[in-house]
């Protein structure tokens, strides 16, 4: 965790109180009063939440806490019953998924969505924004989009290089392993040049060797100035790379703070382990400390 | 039983005007299903509005034939919008249910009594193709083509029909080899992923539906030129299913798949028909009356399709590696 120490000097969140709904010095994403009901069940009920620019923010919580629902709401893939939220001071209410993505807030999915019967390279090229050849009429005029295609190709190849997928560039995306698909999905999202990347369970179903490389990519992104919000279950991962952690339980933000604050937060331990957290929790806790 | 004769007849069917307009409509279906993943089970509805667009404009309103084609195309655009606006935001199955129903509703609507002043009702419309044959560049007579003869009229329809097939293929090829086509193929694989990358999935699906529908309408127009008469009973739902069979036979998602599928399908239908009739004439099939042959040949084509799906699921010119990919 040497990079943590280096950044500690210029911690953008220095002096931010670890209380739910706290205001951040430079928020990239702000949400207030977000409510989403499914019939009688209120799946998400977030009073206020801000995400600091240039940090890795983890969204954690027990199963059914509403993490993925909140993710869908923020990224425009679902609409809340109430609430206001903004990204880079753009109001996002009533914007659809693709409009949110165009503003620079790009998400990935819990179940990886590689475009299986397209080549890895086509997966990448597809994501490039603002292509003139993407219009119905523009598509016919090849000289009009050739140059742009070439520039996108260069960007795609350098990203594939960085994510160690360059050898697979001409393979069908469907022939990749689960972990490689995760890498491809992340690389593809970067083709959009996002300023905020929303990653839903990046480590699910990925072998331990790839976990390290994925973690490296996420921290590298932050160091490049991209803000990252991610949902994850693996506590080691969360504690290792997050700058800030937001804990959801039953649709509400019950705690937020730095990893150290969260680890010692009694409410979080209660939410995760419920009533039966006496012996096994103590054991697990001491293990984590060591 | 003259095998050579049967083969010649099969060849005739494979390049006849019928094969041309089926190929054209199947190219439209390929745009929908092969590239965008839209399940359109009502392609015949697009053919119907195209055909009637031509016939009504010329007969009822006295417009010139090219304007009639334009009207047919516009009708297809309107139909695509009507079908697409409510269904394309929903899951794929809703479009398929709507298309199959709307195609059948359209047929009943066009044959209804109250529509008769416009559509001719059950009797349909005739004589609208006269100006087309007036400009036939081929002098009256019979033309031999690789051992089969066509009338000058059939030849003229074939030139126009296959010409349109060529244009449609060229348009499809250019589009699917562009960034536009790449987005379309992405939508076929997973529309949420494409949406998350900032593409307006609904607009792309709509464009695809309109374009494929326009190809269907043109096919309907060519059909009417060949037929010189239009009646609602031509546009039965099975036309759509023939188109699907042709598309899957040739290979969905390939530019020439639907064209090859249409040619081979008509070749096979004709050859089974010839063989069965030949065998029946020689008394080899005593249990088979002449009228059963038509039904049985479809059973044989069905069997051929079944074997194809089992042993070559990607179609004749489909990419095998695309089928083998682990599609989740």
From TrEMBL, chain A:
GO molecular function: ATP binding; ATP hydrolysis activity
Superkingdom in the source lineage: Bacteria
Pfam families, per the entry: ABC_tran, BCA_ABC_TP_C
Ranges for region Disordered: 1-24
UniProt domain ABC transporter: residue ranges: 29-275
Alphabetized InterPro entries for the sequence: AAA+_ATPase, ABC_AA/LPS_Transport, ABC_transporter-like_ATP-bd, ABC_transporter-like_CS, BCA_ABC_TP_C, P-loop_NTPase
Record keywords, A-Z: ATP-binding, Nucleotide-binding, Transport
Keyword Cell inner membrane: no
UniProt keyword Transport present: yes
Gene Ontology CC entries for this record: plasma membrane
PANTHER family given in the database record: CONSERVED COMPONENT OF ABC TRANSPORTER FOR NATURAL AMINO ACIDS, CONSERVED COMPONENT OF ABC TRANSPORTER FOR NATURAL AMINO ACIDS-RELATED
Listed name of the protein: ABC transporter ATP-binding protein
Automatic annotation (TrEMBL), chain B:
UniProt keyword terms in alphabetical order: Cell membrane, Membrane, Transmembrane, Transmembrane helix
GO cellular component: plasma membrane
Compartments in which it is found: Cell membrane
Molecular functions (GO terms): branched-chain amino acid transmembrane transporter activity
Membrane topology qualifier: Multi-pass membrane protein
CDD domains (UniProt xref): TM_PBP1_LivM_like
Source species, domain of life: Bacteria
Main location: membrane
PANTHER family (alphabetical): HIGH-AFFINITY BRANCHED-CHAIN AMINO ACID TRANSPORT PROTEIN BRAE (PTHR30482:SF10), HIGH-AFFINITY BRANCHED-CHAIN AMINO ACID TRANSPORT SYSTEM PERMEASE (PTHR30482)
Protein name: Branched-chain amino acid ABC transporter permease
Originating organism: Nocardiopsis ansamitocini
């Amino acid at each position: 965790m040497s990079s943590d120490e280096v950044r500690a000097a210029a911690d953008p969140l220095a002096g931010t109180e670890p209380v739910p709904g706290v205001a951040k010095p430079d928020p990239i994403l702000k949400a207030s009063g977000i409510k989403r009901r499914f019939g009688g069940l209120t799946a998400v009920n977030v009073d206020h939440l801000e995400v600091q620019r240039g940090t890795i923010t983890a969204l954690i919580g027990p199963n059914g806490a509403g993490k993925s629902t909140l993710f869908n709401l923020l990224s425009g893939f679902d609409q809340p019953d109430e609430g206001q939220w903004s990204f880079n001071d753009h109001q996002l209410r009533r914007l659809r998924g693709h409009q949110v993505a165009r503003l620079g807030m790009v998400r990935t999915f819990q179940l990886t969505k590689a475009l299986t019967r397209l080549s890895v390279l086509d997966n990448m090229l597809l994501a490039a924004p603002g292509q003139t050849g993407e219009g119905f009429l523009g598509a016919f005029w090849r000289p009009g989009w050739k140059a742009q295609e070439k520039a996108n190709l260069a960007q795609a190849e350098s990203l594939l290089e960085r994510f160690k997928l360059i050898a697979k560039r001409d393979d069908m995306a469907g022939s990749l392993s689960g972990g490689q698909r995760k890498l491809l999905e992340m690389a593809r999202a970067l083709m959009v040049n996002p300023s905020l990347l929303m990653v839903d369970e990046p480590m699910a179903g990925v072998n331990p060797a790839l976990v390290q490389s994925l973690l490296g990519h996420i921290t590298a992104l932050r160091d490049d100035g991209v803000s990252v919000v991610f949902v994850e279950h693996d506590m080691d991962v969360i504690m290792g790379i997050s700058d800030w952690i937001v804990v959801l339980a039953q649709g509400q933000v019950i705690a937020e703070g730095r990893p150290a604050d969260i680890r010692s937060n009694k409410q979080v331990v209660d939410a995760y382990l419920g009533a039966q957290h006496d012996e096994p929790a103590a054991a697990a806790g001491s293990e984590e400390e060591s | 039983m003259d095998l050579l004769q049967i083969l010649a007849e099969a060849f005739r069917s494979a390049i006849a005007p019928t094969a041309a307009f089926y190929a054209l409509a199947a190219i439209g279906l390929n745009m929908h299903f092969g590239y965008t993943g839209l399940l359109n089970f009502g392609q015949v509805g697009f053919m119907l509005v195209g055909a009637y667009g031509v016939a009504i404009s010329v007969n009822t309103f006295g417009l010139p034939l090219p304007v009639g084609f334009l009207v047919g195309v516009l009708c297809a655009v309107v139909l695509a919008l009507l079908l697409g606006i409510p269904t394309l935001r929903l899951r794929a199955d809703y479009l398929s249910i709507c298309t199959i129903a709307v195609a059948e509703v359209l047929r009943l609507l066009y044959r209804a009594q109250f529509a008769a002043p416009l559509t001719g009702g059950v009797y349909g419309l005739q004589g609208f193709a006269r100006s087309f044959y007036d400009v036939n560049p081929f002098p009256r007579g019979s033309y031999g083509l690789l051992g089969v003869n066509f009338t000058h009229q059939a030849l003229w329809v074939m030139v126009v029909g296959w010409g349109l097939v060529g244009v449609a293929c060229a348009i499809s090829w250019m589009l699917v080899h562009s960034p536009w086509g790449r987005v379309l193929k992405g939508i076929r694989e997973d529309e949420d992923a494409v949406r998350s990358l900032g593409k307006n999935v609904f607009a792309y699906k709509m464009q695809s539906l309109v374009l494929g529908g326009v190809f269907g309408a043109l096919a309907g127009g060519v059909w009417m030129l060949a037929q010189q008469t239009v009646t609602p009973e031509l546009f039965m739902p099975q036309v759509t299913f023939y188109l699907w069979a042709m598309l899957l036979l040739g290979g969905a998602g390939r530019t020439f798949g639907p064209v090859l599928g249409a040619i081979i399908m008509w070749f096979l239908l004709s050859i089974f028909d010839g063989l069965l009739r030949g065998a029946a004439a020689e008394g080899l099939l005593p249990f088979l009356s002449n009228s059963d042959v038509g039904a049985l040949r479809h059973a044989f084509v069905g069997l051929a399709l079944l074997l194809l799906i089992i042993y070559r699921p990607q179609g004749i010119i489909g990419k095998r590696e695309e089928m083998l990919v682990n599609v989740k």
